[in-house]
Amino acid sequence: MKLSVLLENSYLVLIFSALLLIGNANLWDYKLSHEFPYGYLASDAFQHQARAEAIKDAGNFRFEANYISHGFENAVGRYPPIIYHLAVIFSYLTKLEVYDSIYFIVFFLASLSAIIMYFVIKGLNKNVALLSLPLSLLIFSSPNYIGFTWGHWPSMLGQFFLIALFWSFYRMEMEKSFLLVGIFLSAIILTHTSELIFGLFFIFVFFMVGLLFKRIDLKDGKNLAFGIILALIISFYYLIIFRYSWFIEQPYSFAVKPLWEGNPGFYLANFQLLLVFILIGIVFSLAKIKYMHIAFLAGVGMLIMGYGNYFGFDVRAFQLRFLWPIYLSAFFGFGIYSILKFFIKKWNLIYSVSLGIVFLVIFSGLIKIPFIPGYQKLTTQGIMDSFHWEALKWLSEKTPENSKLYFFYGDIYNQDALLRNSKRVHFQVDPNDFIENINNRRISREYVTELPGDGGGGIVYRKSPFSFGEYQKENEQGYFFGKKDICEFDYYVFDKASRQQALAQYNLLIANELLKNNFTSVAFENHVLVILKNNNVGADCIEERSF
Amino acid sequence: MKKEAFNELKRESIYIGALFIIFLIIFKIIFFKESFFIVLRAVFSIFWLFVFPGYSIMLYWNDKLDFAERLVIGVALSAAVIGISSYYIGLIGLNVKYHSILLPIILISSGIFLFSRKK
């Protein structure tokens, strides 16, 4: 192996290691296996973890588990499946729990996106690629990091395949390259289908620029056509499900949404001073547009689509911005390289690697420079704790499968996807009604109750190969939310501690009231919660009274 | 398989072996609080699931791409092919727990077969 190749490859390994360190290991307390879902900061993260766990239990993703689907049986598995299958397979191989394996897969492949983009940029210029690469570290800076910690995982993985698609266009001249185009396109469809729009937009830009400068030929057209046909064949089964679920439930509608409600969105201004170099790179790249460098076309395409929140793409556009530091890295590297070339005519590989390492040090936050963004270390166990996890595991393993669970107030239960780890159909008290009962100093038999679950894309079931019904439309709203008789449930979960102790005290008041009958007993208890079992479902289990 | 192709495979197998050791060391440094056995299993799983199958398939394009590029893109290709195949094979009825062994074996052998035919 030549020395220059060795230097280049060592640099790639160094950057990839840095990405894994600051992205994954820092958050995970430098461990791969954890006692409970670690570093999960929002409900969506549990949503994906619980689904992967359900697929592991079922052995396939034909159906969504009933405890995810508001209690409905035979709901078709309608979420794009690749991330879940990879997580389950990786879990079997590593013996890591699914909650660790799915999170690791996301970090690992998102980090690898940067290296794939490196090869795309290398087609333009190796020095530019070396200078561009460290900018990728900013995918783990604030606010982009929520793409990981808040559970936008399918989008991150979909974008990984999107970048692989860019690479396949860069290598379009290779024999049978349509196979790569087709496989990566279908991987996008089967990982996070909305990224297909971004992929198609990139293809549109590629062909428009190509036609304008007469740099594409019939062979490119044939390759693309074969690739698309292959992708359609591979994805056909899933696309039928998509057509009758997501396509109906979340159709495109034009809207201008400058802000991402409830989320800290990433904006170009977040690049701070680095934006100067990115803009210089964009300006200089215009002079080279006729050469159709894929890195530039992809960068421009994803920059435009990142502003899709102004023309109807809303959350999807903001998700795309999570990886802007990768998409726009070509402009950053090109901007820096173009400036330096004015001063140093004989630029070489050593300069690029050295400067790349300086960028690595700065962007990883080791040295903080005003107006230059950098990574800020975050180590947290997240929402879950060992006590709640112990209880959820107990419920999933020690209760009959058809048990109905009732969760009273808990501080963490507003991130309700975590409750799916009970693997049982579960209900939870409405906090507003709960507080109202406290204020009225009343113990009730009926509380306003929510039946949590995942209705995204519509909970559809199959009537025939091309005909689907939708459970949500066929059931009254009262099924999902309304007053429920707590005596109708098999198990009750009460948190004994809360940030607002009055809520926990009221929990225990109800628990003690239930224990006064002779058919409810303590089934499980640890330091923070207690689970009661109702041995006579439907009987008069509690005396309504004031306190 | 022709001798030339076999020699190429042999040389690159040494690179992959070296890379395995490098990644094992890096993972042990990054995840320093983890036991060596779990780190070893994780790195082996990455190589078994992504690197070996991806590398084998990408051998088809070995005359166009250098080793590093084939290896990296191979990981993406393997993730795509294994994810897609696992979904459909699961639907057909083969439990996903068998896929971790079966799918990489199929991909590795297919890749080497195509490479030997091409050569």
Structure characterization notes:
- The complex is a heterodimer of chains A (547) and B (119).
- Chain A folds into two domains: 3-31 and 78-363, no CATH class; 386-546, no CATH class.
- Chain A is 51% helix and 10% strand.
- Chain A is built from 22 helices and 13 strands.
- Chain A has helices spanning 3-25, 43-58, 82-94, 98-122, 126-132, 146-149, 153-170, 177-189, 195-212, 218-244, 246-249, 274-286, 294-306, 314-321, 324-327, 329-343, 349-363, 386-398, 431-439, 471-474, 477-480, 501-515; strands at 63-64, 75-76, 404-407, 425-429, 442-443, 446-450, 460-464, 467-470, 481-485, 491-495, 520-525, 529-534, 545-546.
- Chain A is elongated.
- The model of chain A has no long low-confidence stretch (mean pLDDT 96).
- Chain B has four helices and no strands.
- By secondary structure, chain B is mostly helical.
- At the A-B interface, α1, α3, α4, α7 and α8 of A face α1, α2, α3 and α4 of B.
